[in-house]
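Lab notebook, design round three. We kept the backbone fixed and only want residue identities now. Task for the bench partner: fill in a sequence for the structure below.
Input structure tokens:
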């Protein structure tokens, strides 16, 4: 908890703070001239100052609520820790304390939320709740409840959106098209309701698609790095990896019988295909290991700390943000070997 946070925290504070001043973080990047009078003493620490907000609406509302109390690191950390503890509580109720330790005492989890102050615990909490309701509840309303919970997860971080397709597909196959439509609507309801306040003149600029960071930013990537070695032009076009991700999603839809099966394989494919990977992204897949004991997840919870060589390089005035092949191998190989060993 006393650890100095990652640099994302300053954007969280800023985006919550400027909402209280009447500005939308989706319309004004931190370096906007309109926001000069509101700059704080920590404003210079905000990353990607020329890029508008990338975090979804519920996340922005969470930042706003915390900033209304006080725009401080300690409070924001506490907000992320509470969600983290609730995830552990949910897992322990279903799988017991021993299996839950793989999440609760996981060094990556402890760093990501209590240390680095990354907000991803807000994303993981409704995702885990949706999983447990869908796979383990026998209630007649489990379709609606899991869809709403997953919808909240999507409205916190976009990455869980493809999982909604699994819920819709299973509803269609098992119950019928009417239930599938209801599940889809419930899944989009949270983001629809919370995005309204950020939409003006028929536009909802929730994703800065024109930014260089979104278009061809790179960080500790695996497959895009390997592709770039034989096809240099691919380094400037991140969108091409949506195609293999989409094909993998279709394959998973046809093969997966449970939320757990789809979600853990989807996140695995997403991580190895993503052009931008940060250490805490692996935290998304850790809760599912409480059920499976997956060795890939266990090992990457340690090997992912090699990522912080990038931060060390910056401290040495090396701003390339590039892992060597050896460093990349040590980060990814334990994950891949452990994953396929557990899923052979």
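Proposed sequence:
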């Amino acid at each position: 908890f006393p650890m100095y946070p990652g640099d994302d925290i300053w954007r969280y504070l800023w985006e919550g703070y400027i909402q209280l001043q009447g500005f939308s973080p989706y319309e004004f990047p931190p370096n906007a001239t309109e926001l000069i009078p509101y700059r704080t003493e920590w404003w210079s620490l905000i990353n990607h100052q020329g890029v508008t907000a990338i975090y979804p609406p519920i996340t922005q509302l969470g930042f706003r609520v915390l900033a209304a109390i006080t725009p401080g690191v300690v409070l924001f950390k506490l907000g992320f820790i509470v969600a983290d503890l609730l995830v552990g509580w949910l897992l322990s109720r279903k799988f017991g304390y021993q299996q839950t330790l793989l999440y609760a005492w996981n060094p990556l989890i402890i760093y990501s939320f209590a240390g680095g102050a990354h907000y991803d615990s807000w994303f993981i909490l409704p995702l885990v709740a949706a999983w447990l309701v869908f796979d383990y509840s026998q209630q007649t309303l489990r379709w609606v409840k899991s869809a709403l919970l997953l919808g909240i997860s999507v409205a916190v971080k976009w990455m869980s959106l493809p999982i909604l397709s699994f819920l819709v597909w299973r509803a269609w196959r098992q119950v019928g098209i009417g239930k599938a439509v209801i599940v889809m609507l419930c899944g989009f309801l949270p983001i629809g309701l919370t995005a309204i306040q950020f939409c003006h003149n028929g536009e909802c600029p929730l994703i800065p698609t024109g930014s260089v960071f979104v278009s061809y930013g790179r960080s500790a990537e695996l497959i895009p790095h390997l592709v770039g070695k034989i096809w240099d032009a691919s380094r400037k076009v991140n969108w091409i990896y949506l195609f293999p991700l989409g094909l993998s999603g279709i394959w998973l839809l046809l093969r997966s019988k449970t939320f757990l099966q789809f979600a853990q394989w989807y996140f695995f494919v997403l991580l190895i295909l993503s052009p931008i990977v940060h250490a805490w992204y692996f935290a998304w897949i850790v809760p599912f290991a409480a059920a499976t004991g997956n060795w890939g997840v266990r090992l990457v919870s340690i090997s992912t700390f090699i990522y912080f060589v990038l931060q060390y390089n910056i401290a040495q005035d090396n701003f390339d943000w590039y892992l060597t092949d050896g460093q990349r191998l040590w980060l990814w190989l334990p994950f891949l070997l452990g994953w396929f060993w557990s899923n052979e």
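Keep this in mind before ordering anything: The radius of gyration is 20 Å.
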